[in-house]
C-alpha cells in the first residue's frame, strides 16, 4: 500500500509552530498535510490574516461571535461560512488574543480520494477536488461543527502533520484573493507549478 493510501505518517505540528506571526507560519505550512478522519491533502496554497493591523481580516474590528476562534489559542481551527454556501478553514496563529490566522486555500489530494470525489461530484479531475478554500473544506468534510477544534490535540480528528516534505525554498507570492481591503499586502503563498493551486495564480 502506498503512503498516500495508508494512514498519514509524520508528526503533528506542535503549538509552538503556530505561536508565531501568521506571515511567518503561512509559507512554512506549504507542503504540510491537513488530515481529517479518512482524508488528507498536502497544503499547496495559503493566505495570512493579521488581526487589528489587517483590514482584510475578519478580526480587524475586534472579537465577535463569528470570529471568536481567531482570538483563541494558537493551533485552533477557525472555520467560517461565506457566500451563504461555503466553509473555509484557517489555522489560528500568534499569541492568544491576537486574532491572526492562516487560510488553507488549496491542497493536493493524498488519502481518501474516493470519499473526496463523492463529496465533490462536480469535480471533473482530481486536481479540482481541493483547488480552492471551499473545495478543500468540502472534500475533507470540514464544516462549522469543527470551528474551535484543536489542531494540536486533534480533539475532533483534524490535525496538520509534517511528513518530511519541506516547504518550497522559493514559494510563489502574491496579493490575497477576493479582497476589497488590504489588497496591497503580498500575503498569499503557493507551491509554484502545482496543478492543485487555485485558479487565481
Q: Helix and strand string, N-terminal first?
A: EHHEEEEEHHEEE
Query: Treating each run of at least 4 consecutive H or I residues as one helix, how many helices?
Result: 4
CATH-derived topology: 3-methyladenine DNA Glycosylase, Chain A
- Uncertain residue segments: 1-5
User: What's the rounded overall pLDDT mean?
Assistant: 92
CATH class type: Alpha Beta
How many distinct beta strands? 9
Computed over alpha carbons, the radius of gyration is 15 Å
The helix content, as a percent range, equals 10-25%
CATH architecture: Roll
Q: Say which CATH homologous superfamily is assigned.
A: Methylpurine-DNA glycosylase (MPG)
- Give the N-to-C terminal Cα separation: 34 Å
Count of discrete domains: 1
Question: Which structural class fits the helix and strand makeup?
Answer: alpha+beta
Quick one: overall form? globular
Biggest β-sheet description:
9 strands, antiparallel
Amino acid at each position: 500500500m502506498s503512503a498516500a493510501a495508508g494512514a498519514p505518517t509524520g508528526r503533528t505540528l506542535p503549538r509552538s509552530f503556530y505561536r508565531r506571526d501568521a506571515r511567518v507560519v503561512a509559507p512554512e505550512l506549504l507542503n504540510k498535510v491537513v488530515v481529517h478522519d479518512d482524508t488528507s491533502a498536502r497544503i499547496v496554497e495559503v493566505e495570512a490574516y493579521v488581526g487589528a493591523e489587517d483590514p482584510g481580516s475578519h478580526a480587524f474590528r475586534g472579537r465577535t461571535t463569528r470570529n471568536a476562534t481567531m482570538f483563541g489559542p494558537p493551533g485552533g481551527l477557525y472555520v467560517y461560512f461565506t457566500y451563504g454556501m461555503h466553509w473555509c478553514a484557517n489555522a489560528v496563529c500568534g499569541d492568544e488574543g491576537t486574532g491572526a490566522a492562516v487560510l488553507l486555500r488549496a491542497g493536493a489530494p493524498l488519502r481518501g480520494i474516493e470519499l473526496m470525489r463523492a463529496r465533490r461530484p462536480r469535480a471533473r479531475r482530481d486536481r479540482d477536488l481541493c483547488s480552492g478554500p471551499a473545495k478543500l473544506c468540502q472534500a475533507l468534510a470540514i464544516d462549522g461543527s469543527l470551528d474551535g477544534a484543536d489542531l494540536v490535540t486533534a480533539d475532533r480528528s483534524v490535525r496538520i502533520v509534517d511528513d518530511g516534505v519541506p516547504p518550497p525554498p522559493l514559494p510563489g507570492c502574491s496579493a490575497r484573493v477576493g479582497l476589497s481591503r488590504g489588497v496591497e499586502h503580498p500575503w498569499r503563498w503557493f507551491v509554484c507549478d502545482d496543478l492543485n493551486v487555485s485558479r487565481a495564480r
